[in-house]
Write a structure and sequence with these properties.
CATH topology of the largest domain: Aspartate Aminotransferase, domain 2
CATH superfamily of the largest domain: Type I PLP-dependent aspartate aminotransferase-like (Major domain)
């Protein structure tokens, strides 16, 4: 039986959070002499520490409570806070399914949390046979599941993911950075059923806002309260909050851009498959393709010489490169550069 209080770090439960000036007094108008701000300038006031306007819009769109939403300085901040809330340094453990997003291991190391690696199968999916050992891992507090997965691109089996959430008495984090490109449903529709579930999404991919660093965390109100308890008081700038809300309101444009990316991905597939050095293109539910080639290092270098920058994943997945889907013009440049490789 999942019990939140038994898996939260004791010092976090007992922590008295910092109370900022803007969290104590929330009126929009007035003479503010409470936060030691400079009275001059256009950006002289601290931003809303609770990101109220952004959360109100998201809550209405997703039909969930504002208390179930956390706004982070990118998804990486949310992941880092999850480690800090639930994992005692040097004692507790977390688990990933590799190959996957590299920041899980970096943030685990920063927080002195042992990271257990459970490899995906040959199809880069969850192996049901390997799940039995999860319950036997001592001090395992958090499981991270990236779906659609980076760098492989595929959505992981939702039935097995659900099984993990149902049977694990710790926290399950589903990283859905690429969910807007997938035909699979977000696990957000199951949030109310599972008190141990955290979902991470981002405005960096489908919304084209990588520069402003906005991550969104969804969880029970109790878990969100814990994340709010330990976050920096003004973790998301006022400018970024404003830009994020403006972009979210551009629903039609956002949908058009995603459709354009998916159309380009479909167009690229047969073209890329026609090259002799392409051995396999893995199924993708994201805005990128993982491609096995006969000489990843060579192709990566040749593309750099043509000023086309892709990602060399040869070290992590032997023989593989990863190509993000660009605009039609960018993709044409990529194709021409690949044609020149001998």
């Amino acid at each position: 039986m999942f019990n939140l209080n038994t898996i939260v770090r004791k010092n976090i439960l007992e922590l008295k959070p910092y109370s900022s000036a803007r969290s104590e007094f929330k009126l929009q108008d007035g003479i503010f002499l409470d936060a030691n701000e400079n009275p001059f300038g256009n950006y002289n006031r601290y931003p809303d520490p609770e990101q109220k306007a952004l959360k109100t819009f998201i809550a209405k769109r997703e039909n969930i409570s504002e208390g179930s939403i956390f706004i982070g300085n990118g998804s990486d901040e949310i992941i880092d806070l999850i480690f800090r809330v639930f994992c005692n340094p040097g004692i507790d453990k977390a688990l990933i399914f590799s190959p996957t997003y590299g920041m899980y291991s970096v943030l685990a190391a920063i927080n002195d949390v042992e990271l257990i690696d459970s490899p995906l199968n040959e199809k880069f999916n969850l192996d049901e046979n390997n799940l039995n050992r999860i319950s036997s891992i001592e001090s395992l507090k958090v499981i991270f599941i990236c779906s659609p997965n980076n760098p492989t691109g595929n959505a992981l089996d939702p039935t097995i993911i659900t099984q993990i959430i149902q049977t694990f008495n710790g926290i399950v984090v589903i990283d859905e950075a690429y969910i807007d490109f997938s035909k699979n449903d977000s696990f957000l529709i199951m949030l109310s059923k599972f008190p141990n579930l955290i979902i991470c999404q981002t405005l960096s991919k489908a919304y084209g806002l990588a520069s402003i660093r906005i991550g969104i965390g969804y969880a029970s109100e109790k878990i969100i309260a814990l994340l709010n308890k330990i976050k920096p008081p003004y973790n998301v700038s006022g400018i970024n909050q404003k830009i994020a809300l403006e972009k979210l309101l551009q629903t039609e444009e956002n949908q058009t851009n995603v459709k354009s990316i998916l159309k380009e991905k479909a167009r690229l597939l047969p073209i890329l498959n026609s090259f002799d050095f392409v051995l396999k293109i893995y199924p993708s539910d994201a805005n990128f393709l993982l491609i096995k080639v006969n000489d990843a290092n060579k192709i990566y270098q040749k593309l750099i010489e043509a000023s086309v920058i892709i990602r060399n994943r040869n070290t992590e997945i032997p023989g593989c490169i990863r190509i993000s889907i660009g605009s039609e013009a960018e993709n044409e440049t990529l194709i021409n550069a690949l044609k020149s490789i001998k």
